[in-house]
Amino acid sequence: MDVIEKFGNRVSSQALKDPEKARRLLLAGYRLQEKKLQFLPDRGLPSSGQYVARVVMKNIIQSLSEPENAAMVSIFVPGELVMAAGLTPYSVEAMSCFMAGTKCEQTFLRKTEEEGFPETMCSYHRVFLGAALTGILPKPNCMIYTNLACDGNMMTFPYLKDKFECPGFYIDVPYEKNRESVLYVADQLRKLKRFLEETTDRRISEETVRSAVDNSRKAAANYKKQLALRCAHDPVTSLTNELYALFMCHLMAGSETAVTYTEKLLRDVRMSPRGDGLSVIWMHIMPFLQEPVKDIFNYSKKMHIRACDFIADGFQEMHAEDPYEAMAEKMVYCIYNGSVKQRIEEAERLARITESDGAVLFAHWGCKGTIGASSLIKQSLEKTGLPTMILDGDGCNPANTSDGQVSTRLQAFVEMLEKGKEEKHA
To answer: How far apart are CA 46 and CA 57, in angstroms?
Structure first.
């Protein structure tokens, strides 16, 4: 049993007996890790990776230690307004990732089962719900959620809103991608700004909102520049590092931190040589805990992730001049909203720009939209000549995957890509 597993067991046992003590223990571990990242950063990662690891760790600590200044959010909530309100994004998905990384998730998964939540529900939401039910997670200032992409939001947030007796705001995003939908969502975002002013008792100036949206535009421009360079540059990365980028394009969108991250990322890409071996685009979230996937991708100089559709979509350009319409545009035209056609087109675009050899679609347990569309995505991409693997697994609950099967399938996919590349250059 390693140190992390021992620590996770202590947190788990305390969570059921004394949740306040368990939270303090969890915070102590995270603060120790923050110090390690500050003074002993991961030298295997470039500057942007080291930077984002510290930022994300700080965010998790603030969510747990200063919940009165945190907004519980789902991943697609406009970070720009959360940043403008001066709140810490207290993310369901991110917090579950960290608890799973701390190896204390099984206790919380069992807790949700006891409360009658279905096992087929997304494990990110189940871990978070279980932790909230034990009392280890604190009550936030408020919560903001949307129907966009994940149906787990529609169970988790209403349930916790009642449990915590917490003010909440719901953003309804229509399926149709048109001007009417953008205006409809923009009107809700103006109301969200007023809601945040009431819950924080702080005025949010229009200049602050516009500045946050302008930061998102800068970050998107930087991301676009580095993406254009990826066909000839392969910085070393890890699945965890790629996962952290989601903070920058969603949860902390609109912050100066996100701009700094993309500036560092652009610099790192420019300075990186073209790697040997193979390259892929990644679709959906990262199974950062799964050993055979880590073995293939982490710090690899032979298998490179050149782009992720989830991250690229988060850094999409916003064209509307009005800041609320710009944020609404980003939500309405999200590739996870509406028809699967846009996800396919985005994957094709990323593969073309980065000149990738193949694609991996991660079909996360409980994500019905991705699992249901996976065969169509694979067939469509392979018709264009892009070999595509559907990788079944669970991004947050290792118990739902078989390392042996995943390893065998990944190795076979790598061999297929190698053979295809040899034939192409023969």
So the answer is: 17
Q: Is 70 helix (H, G, I), strand (E, B) or coil?
A: strand
Which of 141, 177, 143 is closest to 66 using CA atoms? 141
CA separation for the pair 401, 290 (Å, rounded): 8
Cβ–Cβ under 8 Å, residues 65 and 25: no
294-328 residue pLDDT tens:
999 999 999 999 999 999 999 999 999 999 999 99
Per-residue pLDDT reduced to its tens digit, 33-71:
999 999 999 999 999 999 999 999 999 999 999 999 999
Tokens of 354: 């980065």
* pLDDT value of residue 426: 67
Please list the ranges in the chain whose pLDDT falls under 70.
1, 426
Q: Which residues, including other chains, have CB under 8 Å from residue 86's CB and lie 6 or more apart?
A: 69, 200, 202
Q: Decide: helix, strand or coil at residue 170.
A: strand
Bridge partners, 51 (sequence order): none
Task: Give pLDDT tens digits for 98-149.
Answer: 999 999 999 999 999 999 998 889 999 999 999 999 999 999 999 999 999 8
Q: Which helix (H) or strand (E) holds 112?
A: helix 105-114
Pair 106, 12: CB distance under 8 Å: yes
Q: Residue 401 carries which side chain, given as an amino acid letter?
A: T
Distance CA 348, CA 93 (A): 27
User: Three-state secondary structure along 337-369?
Assistant: CCCCHHHHHHHHHHHHHHCCCEEEEEEECCCHH
Can you count the helices (H) and strands (E) in the chain? 18, 8
Torsion over CA: 276, 280, 285, 286 (sign) = negative
